[in-house]
């Protein structure tokens, strides 16, 4: 299965970003996996571990914009219940955004253990959407970054540059972030106009130790 995804404005915050919210220029596999789960209405993050994804970029690199936004900072404690004056707990922060993001994602469920594979559930979502139950807007990255459309890829959608695994590549992206330990699994990539077997990235079946 090969999907075309269009997202007008989004951000993929870097793992180490704090006050200055820098973004990855390309979508991390972990983010794509989360979006696909949201598309089929699956809340269990482990349900389709083992699926293989390949990510391609259509057109030029999406431009990065830097905006200044107000962000609230406070920690919940027994002594600070309920009241957080804006003057004390808000401050301006910079935030990077990507615009006009167009992607192609290939999905291979051959190594999944789920009884109903992710590719089959995606096919159901497209062909008979009344059979799935989901909630909220479909987003890519942060929750405000709504997706404009997802559909099967056509050659007229544009030329693809694929992310290929390369330990000497300059693009580092998270493949999986363990929600319990916050430890992550990362992979380096480079871009290529040709699809190769190294384009496939496996969402790990077991947690990062």
Structural account:
This protein is mainly beta and 209 residues long. The chain is 12% helix and 34% strand. The chain is built from 3 helices and 9 strands; from the N terminus they run βαββαβαβββββ. Strands 1, 2, 3, 4, 5, 6, 7, 8 and 9 form a 9-stranded antiparallel sheet that branches. The longest helix is centred in the first third of the chain and has 12 residues. The protein is globular.
Write the layout of secondary structure elements.
Blueprint: E1 2-10, H1 29-40, E2 52-58, E3 64-72, H2 86-89, E4 90-108, H3 118-127, E5 149-152, E6 160-165, E7 171-177, E8 184-192, E9 201-202
Structural descriptors:
globular; 12% helix; 34% strand; mainly beta; 209 residues; nine-stranded antiparallel β-sheet
Number of strands: 9
Based on secondary structure, the structural category is: mainly beta
Radius of gyration: 18 Å
Residue share in β-strands? 25-35%
Order of helix and strand elements from N to C terminus: EHEEHEHEEEEE
Report, as a whole number of angstroms, the end-to-end distance: 31 Å
Shape: globular
Calculate the mean pLDDT score and round it: 88
Query: What's the total helix number?
Result: 3
Query: Which runs of at least 5 residues are low in confidence (pLDDT < 50)?
Result: none
Query: Major β-sheet, in short?
Result: 9 strands, antiparallel
Helix content: 10-25%
In short:
This protein has 209 residues and is mainly beta. 12% of the residues lie in helices and 34% in strands. Strands 1, 2, 3, 4, 5, 6, 7, 8 and 9 form a nine-stranded antiparallel beta sheet that branches.
């Amino acid at each position: 299965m090969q999907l075309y995804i269009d997202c007008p404005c989004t951000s993929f915050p870097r793992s180490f970003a704090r006050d200055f919210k820098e973004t990855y220029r390309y979508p991390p596999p972990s983010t794509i996996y989360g979006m696909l789960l949201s598309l089929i209405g699956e809340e269990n993050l482990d349900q389709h571990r083992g699926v293989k994804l390949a990510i391609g970029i259509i057109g030029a690199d999406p431009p990065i914009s830097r905006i200044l936004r107000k962000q609230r900072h406070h920690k919940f404690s027994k002594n600070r219940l309920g009241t957080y004056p804006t003057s004390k707990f808000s401050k301006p922060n910079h935030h990077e955004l990507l615009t006009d993001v167009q992607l192609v994602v290939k999905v291979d469920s051959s190594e999944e253990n789920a009884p109903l594979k992710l590719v089959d559930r995606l096919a159901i979502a497209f062909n008979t959407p009344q059979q799935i139950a989901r909630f909220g807007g479909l987003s890519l990255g942060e929750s405000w970054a709504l997706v404009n459309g997802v559909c099967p890829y056509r050659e007229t959608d544009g030329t693809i540059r694929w992310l290929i695994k390369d330990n000497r590549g300059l693009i580092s992206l998270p493949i999986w972030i363990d929600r319990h330990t916050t430890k992550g699994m990362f992979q380096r990539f480079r871009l290529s106009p040709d699809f190769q077997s190294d384009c496939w990235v496996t969402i790990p079946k077991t947690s990062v130790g």
